[in-house]
Specification:
260 residues; alpha/beta; Rossmann fold; 7-stranded mixed beta sheet; two-stranded parallel sheet
Length: 260
């Protein structure tokens, strides 16, 4: 399989910018993921208001809205590759700052009680280094809450196109967190979506920004080949075709002794 761990961040920005107006209507799995992450995060939040909260790769603001609904904080900072500040301003009740740039190399200017991210870190080039980087931006006992995807995500498309992201496994995330974090909660599971046709699968991916992985131009010939191969391999008894999502979650606390 062609590795896309070194995917150009500008491609990601372009794909998500194009998908921004359609994203919320089509990103149903991502929406459920934010709800699941938020539900478990509630178990580990202190009763008192937080000082500083950061969300990395906030996108259209799905998680952002839930965070601000459930958490009281003195300072909010949201980040994304795309300039989504106008969209956030329409959704969010509390005032916030916005930083447009690469979340993987976020320039920490302060330390946060909570760093959260949903459906973003799978695009990072070095997710293990990202965990280390987060230590710079977390207070002692600060929380890192992440929703991302596991190794079987979109496996049908990857099998046929031979193109896909290299998703870390849950055990890899656990290993990376083990040195300086207390893992409070983690889980992963698979969800099967069905679509009327393989073309509907491609449209769904386009509307959720995943076309950033497509580094070739579709011709009628390879599009017809994709449709035929997908129908042959992934048709369901109902006559529809399937697409697998593999959500993965963790919440970890930065160990107090880890802070120098």
């Amino acid at each position: 399989m062609e590795s896309l761990t070194a995917i150009n961040k500008s491609r990601i920005r372009q794909a998500f910018q194009k998908a921004l107006n359609d994203y919320d209507r089509h990103a149903l799995i991502q929406q459920k993921m934010t709800i699941n992450l938020m539900a478990h995060l509630q178990d580990y939040l202190p009763d008192m208001p937080l000082e500083n909260v950061l969300e990395l790769g906030c996108g259209s603001g799905m998680l952002s809205a839930l965070l601000q609904k459930q958490i009281s904080a003195n300072y909010w900072l949201f980040n994304d590759l795309c300039d989504v500040q106008p969209q956030l301003a329409e959704k969010l009740p509390q005032s916030f700052d916005f930083y447009c740039g690469d979340a993987e190399n976020f320039p920490f200017q302060r330390q946060f009680d909570l760093i959260a991210s949903a459906s973003a870190v799978q695009w990072f080039h070095q997710p293990d280094a990202f965990i280390t980087h987060c230590k710079t931006g977390l207070k002692a006992n600060g929380l890192l809450a992440v929703a991302t995807f596991g190794k079987d995500n979109l496996k049908e498309v990857r099998q046929i196109t031979n193109i896909g992201l290299n998703y870390p496994t849950l055990s890899q995330w656990q290993t990376w967190l083990a040195k300086d974090f207390e893992l409070l909660w983690c889980e992963d599971f698979k969800v099967i979506l069905d679509f009327d046709t393989p073309l509907d699968v491609l449209k769904h991916l386009k509307y959720t920004g995943v076309t950033a992985t497509n580094q070739k131009n579709w011709t009628r010939k390879n599009l017809n080949g994709f449709i035929g191969d997908y129908l042959s391999a992934f048709s369901m008894p109902s006559g529809k075709v399937r697409l697998t999502y593999h959500p993965l979650f963790f919440i970890a606390r930065y160990s107090a002794e880890g802070r120098q």
